[in-house]
Write a structure and sequence with these properties.
32% of the residues lie in helices and 21% in strands. It has 362 residues and is α/β, with parallel strands linked by helices. The protein folds into 3 domains: 76 residues, OB fold (Dihydrolipoamide Acetyltransferase, E2P), CATH 2.40.50; 157 residues, Rossmann fold, CATH 3.40.50.300; 79 residues, Ribonucleotide Reductase Protein R1, domain 1 (Orthogonal Bundle), CATH 1.10.40. The strands form 3 sheets. The chain has a 6-stranded mixed beta sheet with strand order 10-9-8-11-13-12, with helices on both faces. A 5-stranded mixed beta barrel has the order 1-2-3-5-4. Strand 4 and strand 5 form a beta hairpin. The relative contact order is 0.11. Bound molecules: guanosine-5'-triphosphate, magnesium ion (MG) and zinc ion. Magnesium ion binds next to helix 6.
Length: 362
Amino acid sequence: MERTLPEGISLDELGWSDELARLVPEGSGLSPARVASVYAARVDVWTPEGPRLASLRSRALRDAPIVGGVAVGDWALVAQTGADTSEVVVEAILPRRTVFLRQAAGERAEPQAIAANVDRVFVVTAVDGDFNLRRVERYLVAIASGGAEAQIVLTKSDLVPDVAPLLERIGALAPAFATSARSGHGVDELVARIPRGTTATVVGSSGVGKSALVNRLLGRDVQLEGAVREHDGRGRHTTTRRELFVLPGGGLLIDTPGMRELKPWLPEGAHEVDDAFDDVAALAEACRYRDCGHAREPGCAVRAALESGELAAARFEGWQKLSRERTELAPRQATFAAVAESRRRARTASVALRKRLKDKGR
Ligand SMILES: Nc1nc2c(ncn2[C@@H]2O[C@H](COP(=O)(O)OP(=O)(O)OP(=O)(O)O)[C@@H](O)[C@H]2O)c(=O)[nH]1
Ligand SMILES: [Mg+2]
Ligand SMILES: [Zn+2]
């Protein structure tokens, strides 16, 4: 795969701001760089001097004011290591403006950062088998809790004679527009939503056509596209890493691998579920009992709306499932925070111990 960084990109084009500039310690000699790709112990960063391979100082990671690990889109402060200008060291990660977080796959409840400092997250869903309002709702909740703006891209519009009915249904959830990487329909509209100086990302299931759109916007085949396997509709050349691209118009776009089932990482007391389901939340408010379970309680406004058809059962179930997940996550998040805190204390203690030993040795 080809690295794509146009010559002489400015910090402004990379999304740098005065706000960020104020965070650079004066006289530190560190320079800003944007994380473009993340490997195990190294990252690719973009600087106005060009792309650099950067190793991560463990201290930089430990002290980073971020959750879910270093992500594509993060701002790093880097130092030159020596005569070799092509390699640098990440000395610090700056606080994020926005982030798209999910629960990492696996048993342990941990946040995983998919993309950082993105202005806009495009939830990509195709008109074919992937079309599913419930799935999109889950993405919208995750986006809202990370602070970025959400838009829905209904793609592969070339596969249906009229995309309007589907667009109307999905457009009820968030601003939505239709595209086709094949015919080029709606591609200008997508470009217009990623102006110079801003960063966007595409997220969604595998095979919906995220990389096909990225390729279309780049005007060449940078990201491998998956030929869809017949039996399960999933891509074959599926994207395996998150990666940042510069569009010809100057905007930045992050391609991401498809996700199986997105579990939003919701901070304690998060109101995003109710925000995304304000219709259901308003009905629940109108129930006679504060703690109504919306099962058999008298005076349940939710059940009444379900029975009259005012509220779709699937939407109610989507809200219930996310609310339940948020409740289940809370104690595990507390454990996660406690473990992080005890690790921090252990570190402080070991630093103090090392210092004592050193002092003794003198
Ligand atoms: N008909 C049609 N097919 C498309 C369109 N966009 C993508 N495809 C096809 O859908 C398949 C999957 O496309 P990708 O772009 O690889 O999908 P993806 O979302 O990047 O998938 P992952 O990388 O696995 O997450 C490929 O065979 C594409 O050719 C489109 O607009 N119309
Ligand atoms: Mg892809
Ligand atoms: Zn109720």
